[in-house]
Amino acid sequence: MHIVGYRNMWVIVMFDLPTDTPKARRDYTEFRKFLLNDGFVMMQYSVYSRHCPSQENADVHTRRIERHIPPDGEVRVFSITDKQFERMRIFWGKVRQPPESAPKQLQFF
Amino acid sequence: MIKQIVEISETPAHLRVRHEQLEITVKGKVIGRIPCEDLGVLIVDNQQATFSHYALVRLGAYGTVVVLCDDAHHPSSMVLPLPNHSQVVTRLKLQIDVSAPTKKRIWKQIVISKISGQAENLQADSAPRKRLVELARTVRTGDPQNHEAQAAKIYWQSWLHDLREQEEFRRSRYGDAPNNLLNYGYAIYRAAIARAIVAAGLHPSIGVKHIHRSNVFCLADDLVEPLRPIVDQVVRELYSSGHVELDRYAKSMILESLTQAFSVSHGKGPLLVQLNRYLASFVRCLEDPRAELEIPQQCTSSDIEICG
Q1: Do A57 and B308 count as a contact with CB atoms less than 8 A apart?
Q2: Contact between A53 and B6 using a beta-carbon 8 Å cutoff
């Protein structure tokens, strides 16, 4: 069975969280730690992404985020297919970089 | 959900877990990162690889099976999590209390499925294939006439026959190629099924047929039987195209078969996922003497449906 690009999803989380009080900073750290523990990796500051092999799995991770939303600040979550994700254009200065590729079912190191 | 399979063979990596993600590092530099949750099987086939204790503990907590290979690249041991299923005591009792007739009935179904699978691998309309079909049809409960062994003899004699007329293949653990490929394939499948057994809250050492005092994986050895012909098929294709070495290509072909589409009763999906359904039906067989064991069947390419 080949897992196709239309079924592979990426969940993207973007957030703007306050860091003005010690409590706000702790809430922020906890949220970020939760994201890492849930398999997300940082794409940019405050932008995290995670690859999911199916829509169902993407829903699971989206719901988990909903359960860990910090009390203040804004969090945006959306998911796109791997096909859409790979069309992302990434620039470092004026130089284009390839987007992260979806992990293969089978990986060799 | 379909889990990932990762093999560490080319780089003498250090494996550690940080933020619940397995980090594959070389000289302190992270070269790969996989969420523990998404990892189904981790195969380590590099004698210089090192692990942190915490990594093994965390992988265990997520139900990942870690397979360790020896210097001949043959899987030699596996780290399997202890059952932490909510019904583990009930299931264990179920396994111990299962009656002899039920065990025999389950074993009959396993043998029929194995012989049928072997028959599928032989040339259509050939005499050995017909004999295997006949043997499969006449298996009695508990297989007292040992049709399994009779079938195996016929099967291995003609397994490579249509490829090379003169060649007779001898299946043996330490034999010549493609025995090496078969060993690898069987060991991986055994690990995959052991993982499904533990995930179902069962104990891998209580089997239905295999009883060996020093074998911890009796049940895995029983339940893997019907799946062996899948490995044989892949290995035969490899061998016929000239692959005799257990290299990266051969391994990837064998491992990829775990993600092929299989069906269990109505559901279709990757084999690695279907193993859990297979085990669920095994539990039903233990609970209800009338239940049927539902063994994964290979889907034809026409009815493949993508699923996670």
Answers
A1: yes
A2: no
